[in-house]
C-alpha cells in the first residue's frame, strides 16, 4: 500500500468543497473539515481522510442527516442534554463542547451529554477545544459494540474512548485513547498486511484469545461473536476488568446520562446510529490561581519527560507530544494519504460530480484499484 | 499463612477502641473504622485490618497528625480545595466527599480536591458515599510513586486508583481500581508464596520486564529503580500509554488541581506524606429524570450480565457485584484475617496497652511470629 503526501491546503480545499456539496453550510463544512484534518495532522490516520468514505456512506444511507440541527432538551447552569437528531457528529459535538465551555466559564463546570448523534471523529479534538481556552476538557463517546466484557464472548461495549486535555508549558497535555486494547482499525491493518494479531488483542466467536485477524474480523462483521479485548486483556491477572471499567465510565458519561442508546444497540437501526457523547469542561480557576496550577502541572510533566529511561529507550513522552510533533512535520512536509483512501476520494468525487484532478493534480489511481468509474 | 475468621462485631469493637486510644474522638474513630472494615467486608483484604500497622506507624512516626483538622482553603459553589494538614486520610476524605455531595445537591456538581492528606483506604468507599445518596460519585488519590511511565525505569506515578459509583437496580455499580496493572500488595503476595510474578506486571531497575518478585521489591524499597507497569504493560502494542494516561487523569484530579505534592514526591518528607485526593459528585437530576436514568443504567448492566459467556466461563460480572456478595458472606460467616496481621494487631495492643485477648479470645499467636513482647 503506497502513500502520497498532500499539502494541508489541498486537503483543506477538497474537504471544504466535499461537505459544501453534500449540502452543509460553509461554516459547518469548515467545522467538520477541521475535526477530520486535525486527526490527519496529529498522525491519527484512521480518523482523518480515511474516514471520508464512512461519512459519505452515512449520508447516502440516511443515518447522517445533513439538514438536522442539535437541540438542547434539558439544561441547568452546570449541565445540558442535547438531542443530536442524527446530525453530523462533529457539528453536534462542537456545539455541545462550546456549551460546556460556556458553562465552565460561568459556573466553573459544564457537563453536556449528547444522544442520537453520529461518529464524531477524534475525542481529543473536543477535549482540546477546552484546553485551548485554559480549561480542563474531557470528551467521551460510545460506538458500535466491539469490546467484549471480561468473561464474555459477545461485544457489548464500544471502543469507548476517553480524552482529557489540560494546558501546560511548553505544550498542552492531551490524552485520547480507546478503552479497548486497540481499535478495530489496527486489526484491519494487520489483516491487510497478512500478519497474525499480537497476543492479547482479540477474541474469537467462542471467547477464546485469537491471533487470526481474518477470522476475528469476519465474526465481527457477521456479528457471530468475539471482538476486541478491553485494555488489560481477557483475564483479571492482566487487568481486563479495569479496561472494561473504563469502558463503562465512558458509557456512563455518554449514553447513560443522556438517556441515549448504549453501545450494544448503537448502529443497529436503519435510520440512525444512535451514538452518544459526553463533554466536560472545568475551569481550573475554581481551584485557585489557574496560572499557578498550570505551572505546577508543567513542572510535573517536565519531571516525567526527564525521568530515567528504560534500557534501550531514548525518551519518555507525555501525552499529546507525539501529536504536536506530527502536526509540525505534516504542516511542513505534507500529510500522507494511502492509495486505498485516494481511490475512495475518487469515488466520492464521482458521486458528488467534483473534479478529482483539480485537487490532486497528476495523481494516478493504482491500476488494480476499486474505482467505480464515472467522471471524477 | 493461616487465616482465622472473626465476626464483624469483634473487629468493629477492636478498631473503635484502637482509634479512640490513639486519641481520636468517638465519632472520628467510627469513621476511620468504617472505611477500613468496609474494605474487609468487600474482600479487599489489602486495605482493611492488614493496614492497621501502616496507620500505627504513621501516627508513631508523625506523618499522620491525630489532632489535625482539614481546612477549606478555596471554595466556590461547585468546588473546594482542602488542606488536610496531615490529618488521618479517612477523616479528611469523608469530610471532602460530604462537601462534594452537598455541592452536587445544590448546584448539580461538586469537585473537591485535597492536598497534604494521608493514605485514605479504598477509593470506592468515597465514590459509594455519593451513590448511596443517588448521586454519581468519583474518587481519586495519588500515592507514593510505584508506576513506571512507558519507556521509563523510575517510578514516577502512584498506583493512582480511580473509583466511580452509580446507583442501579438490583445493586449499585462500583468500579475501583489502580491504574497500575496490579498494586504492590500483589507483588508482596507472590513474594511470600515464593512464586514468579506473572508476565507483564513489573520492571527491574533497568526498566526491563521482570518476574523476579524479591528483586523488584528490593529495588522499590531501596529506590534503585523499576516498579510496576501501567495497566497495559510496558509497550505501546499492549496499551501501556493508556494505563499511564489514566494514572495522569488521577494525578490531575488529586495533586494538580489541589496544588499538592505529585506522586513522585509523595512520602519523601520526614513529617508528612503529602498524599492528595480528588472527589466528584454529580446529581443525575441535572440531566433529566434521575429515576429514568437509573432504570436505563440498570437495564444496560442487566444486559451485560446476561450476555453470552466465553467458553468455560459461568458468569459476567458488572463492577461492584463481587463486593456485594463478599459483604453478604462475610457478615454471615466472619471476616478472614491472616496470622501475620493478627501478630501486627497483638503488637498494636501492646503499644496501646489494650488487652488483645479481650477481643480475640482463645487466639494463639503462631510460634514463629514477630511479636515484640509486652502486655497485650
Question: Can you walk through the features of this model?
Answer:
The structure is a homodimer of 376-residue chains. Chain A is of the alpha+beta class and 376 residues long. Helices cover 40% and strands 15% of the residues of chain A. Chain A has twelve helices and twelve strands. Chain A has helices at 8-21, 26-41, 52-61, 89-107, 123-131, 184-192, 213-221, 240-256, 290-306, 321-333, 339-352, 356-359, and strands at 3-6, 71-76, 79-83, 109-117, 136-141, 162-166, 173-177, 202-203, 209-210, 227-228, 275-282, 335-338. In chain A, the strands form three sheets. A seven-stranded mixed β-sheet of chain A has the order 2-3-4-11-5-6-7. A three-stranded antiparallel β-sheet of chain A has the order 9-8-10, with helices on one face. In chain A, strands 1-12 form a two-stranded antiparallel sheet. In chain A, a hairpin with a 6-residue loop joins β6 (162-166) and β7. In chain A, α1 runs antiparallel to α2 and α4 runs parallel beside α5 (123-131). Chain A is globular, with a radius of gyration of 21 Å. The two termini of chain A are 22 Å apart. The interface between A and B is large, with 85 and 85 residues.
Index terms:
globular, 12 strands, three-stranded antiparallel beta sheet, seven-stranded mixed beta sheet, 40% helix, homodimer, alpha+beta, 376 residues
Topology:
The structure is a homodimer of 376-residue chains.
Chain A: E1 3-6, H1 8-21, H2 26-41, H3 52-61, E2 71-76, E3 79-83, H4 89-107, E4 109-117, H5 123-131, E5 136-141, E6 162-166, E7 173-177, H6 184-192, E8 202-203, E9 209-210, H7 213-221, E10 227-228, H8 240-256, E11 275-282, H9 290-306, H10 321-333, E12 335-338, H11 339-352, H12 356-359
Parallel strand pairs in A: 3-4
Antiparallel strand pairs in A: 1-12, 2-3, 4-11, 5-6, 5-11, 6-7, 8-9, 8-10
Amino acid at each position: 500500500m503506497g502513500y502520497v503526501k498532500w499539502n494541508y491546503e489541498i486537503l483543506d480545499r477538497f474537504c471544504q468543497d466535499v461537505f459544501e456539496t453534500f449540502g452543509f453550510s460553509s461554516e459547518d463544512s469548515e467545522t467538520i473539515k477541521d475535526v477530520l484534518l486535525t486527526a490527519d495532522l496529529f498522525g491519527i490516520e484512521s480518523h482523518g481522510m480515511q474516514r471520508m468514505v464512512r461519512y459519505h456512506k452515512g449520508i447516502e444511507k440516511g443515518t447522517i442527516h445533513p439538514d438536522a440541527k442539535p437541540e438542547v432538551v434539558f439544561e441547568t447552569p452546570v449541565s445540558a442534554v442535547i438531542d443530536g437528531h442524527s446530525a453530523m457528529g462533529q457539528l453536534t459535538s462542537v456545539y455541545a463542547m462550546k456549551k460546556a465551555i460556556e458553562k465552565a466559564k460561568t459556573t466553573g463546570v459544564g457537563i453536556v451529554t449528547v444522544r442520537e448523534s453520529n461518529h464524531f471523529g477524534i475525542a481529543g479534538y473536543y477535549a482540546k477545544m477546552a484546553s485551548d481556552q485554559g480549561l480542563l476538557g474531557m470528551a467521551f463517546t460510545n460506538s458500535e459494540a466491539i469490546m467484549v466484557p471480561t468473561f464474555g464472548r459477545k461485544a457489548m461495549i464500544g471502543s469507548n474512548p476517553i480524552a482529557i486535555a489540560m494546558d501546560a508549558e511548553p505544550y498542552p497535555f492531551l490524552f485520547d485513547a480507546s478503552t479497548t486494547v486497540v481499535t478495530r482499525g489496527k486489526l484491519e491493518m494487520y489483516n491487510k498486511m497478512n500478519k497474525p494479531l499480537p497476543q492479547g488483542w482479540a477474541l474469537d466467536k467462542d471467547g477464546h484469545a485469537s491471533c487470526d485477524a481474518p477470522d476475528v474480523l469476519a465474526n465481527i462483521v457477521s456479528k457471530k461473536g468475539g471482538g476486541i479485548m478491553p485494555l488489560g486483556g481477557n483475564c483479571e491477572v492482566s487487568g481486563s476488568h479495569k479496561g472494561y471499567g473504563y469502558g463503562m465510565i465512558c458509557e456512563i458519561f455518554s449514553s447513560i446520562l443522556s438517556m441515549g442508546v448504549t453501545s450494544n444497540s448503537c448502529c443497529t437501526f436503519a435510520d440512525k446510529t444512535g451514538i452518544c457523547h459526553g463533554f466536560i469542561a472545568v475551569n481550573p480557576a475554581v481551584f485557585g490561581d489557574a496560572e499557578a496550577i498550570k505551572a505546577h502541572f508543567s513542572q510535573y510533566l517536565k519531571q516525567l519527560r526527564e525521568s530515567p529511561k528504560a534500557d534501550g529507550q531514548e525518551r519518555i513522552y507525555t501525552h499529546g507530544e507525539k501529536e504536536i510533533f506530527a502536526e509540525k512535520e505534516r504542516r511542513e512536509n505534507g500529510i500522507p494519504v494511502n492509495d486505498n483512501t485516494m481511490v475512495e476520494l475518487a469515488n466520492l468525487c464521482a458521486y458528488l460530480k467534483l473534479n478529482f484532478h483539480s485537487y490532486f493534480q497528476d495523481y494516478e489511481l493504482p491500476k488494480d484499484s476499486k474505482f467505480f468509474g464515472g467522471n471524477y
